[in-house]
Design goal:
This protein is α+β, with helices and mostly antiparallel strands and about 350 residues long. It folds into 3 domains: about 45-170, Roll (Nuclear Transport Factor 2, Chain: A), CATH 3.10.450; about 175-240, no CATH class; about 245-335. The chain has 6 helices and 18 strands. Strands 2, 3, 4, 5 and 6 form a 5-stranded antiparallel β-sheet that branches. The protein has a 4-stranded antiparallel β-sheet with strand order 1-11-13-14. A 4-stranded antiparallel β-sheet has the order 15-16-17-18, covered by helices on one side. The longest helix is centred in the first third of the chain and has 44 residues, at about 50-95. The radius of gyration is 34 Å and the shape is elongated.
């Protein structure tokens, strides 16, 4: 059979955003003003001469220190507020709380929220671990690691402060456009898909994770393993492996060999360059590789490697054969793609 491509433990660190420690306050020295040493009078005179200047410097330092302390407290408060929002959001993602996520601001021009509103949830949810937030001018960003089973990707949360409250304005939801070649997804988590979603004409907002799906393929393709729809990072795709039927393999090879034989007998435009040969030396197929291409979703392209003679080859060439299954996957047209 033709060779087919594969279409396509977290550590214990919590997902809670880390809070910085509160600034410490220095304590006064145990040596009070009454402490006297051998040169106490000399030191007292030095202090008396410079008291007005020193008092001014100390006063400025106290004022500056007060400003810094206030800003530090505000920064700690802002981080704590952001942490509460991020913790709640991450909990919703990890528990696949689609109702909560659907209420967040998602751009309907980018993708539909239909699947979130329908309660479509992954069978394997994501594990999220986030770093400390970076805050400035009413905006906070948080870098998170999103792990879906064995796959890990980095994503960034964006929060805005609106009327004094922080809210997530860009989360971990992914706009997924289903494009899996000669395979049409019929349901996700048991929910039937609209034709525009099933055929990748429209994207849908989805939570990271792995989803159970049911699919439809041409009868000439045999699905060997269906891992499901995996949403991770910034994309989502159906992971599956398949093999071609024996009939399809035979038809593809026969089409390629017939094309080469015709070109050898009567060269024409679109034929490969062939060496002169003894007609008794036939061409033979020694490898076939199939490919599903995103720009040709309802077809398969095969590279058929041919050599001559078979036992002691002196000539190699590759013939491209395209099998068209049609938009409903009920067609079966086998044709050679002419050489450029």
């Amino acid at each position: 059979m033709a060779t087919m491509p594969d279409f396509e433990m977290p550590d214990e660190r919590p997902s809670v955003v880390r809070r910085p420690a509160l600034p410490s306050v220095s304590q006064p020295s145990a040596d009070g003003p009454g402490s006297e040493g051998p040169d106490a009078r000399l030191r007292a005179r030095w202090r008396r001469v410079r008291v007005p200047l020193l008092a001014g410097v100390v006063g400025a330092a106290v004022a500056l220190g007060g400003v810094v302390a206030v800003e530090a407290v505000r920064d700690v408060d802002a981080r704590a507020d952001v942490a509460v929002v991020v913790d709640a959001y991450v909990a919703a993602v990890e528990s696949a709380d689609t109702a909560t996520i659907a209420d967040s601001p998602l751009d309907g021009a980018v993708a539909t929220t239909a699947l979130l509103l329908a309660g479509v949830t992954p069978v394997a949810t994501a594990t999220v671990r986030c770093d400390e937030p970076r805050i400035g001018d009413g905006i906070a960003t948080v870098v998170c690691e999103v792990r879906v089973e064995r796959r890990t990707a980095e994503a960034q949360l964006l929060l805005e402060q609106v009327d004094g409250a922080w809210q997530v304005v860009r989360g971990l939801e992914v706009p997924v456009r289903l494009r899996s070649g000669a395979l049409i997804v019929q349901t996700v988590d048991g929910t039937p898909l609209e034709p525009a979603l099933a055929r990748g004409q429209e994207a849908a907002w989805m939570l990271p994770g792995r989803y159970d799906v049911t699919v439809r393929t041409p009868q000439q393709l045999e699905v060997e393993q269906l891992e499901g729809l995996v949403v991770s990072g910034s994309t989502g795709s159906v992971r599956w492996t398949s093999d071609t039927s024996e009939q399809l393999d035979a038809d593809v090879q026969a089409s390629a060999l017939a094309f080469v034989e015709e070109c050898a007998a009567l060269p024409r435009e679109g034929c490969p360059a062939l060496q002169e040969r003894d007609p008794a030396e036939p061409f033979g197929v020694f490898d076939v590789v199939g490919e599903l291409r995103p720009d040709d979703p309802y077809a398969m392209t095969f590279g058929v490697s041919i050599r001559r003679p078979v036992e002691d080859p002196e000539e190699f060439l590759v013939v491209t054969v395209r099998v068209d299954f049609g938009e409903e996957l009920d067609r079966y047209d086998v044709a050679v793609v002419p050489s450029p």
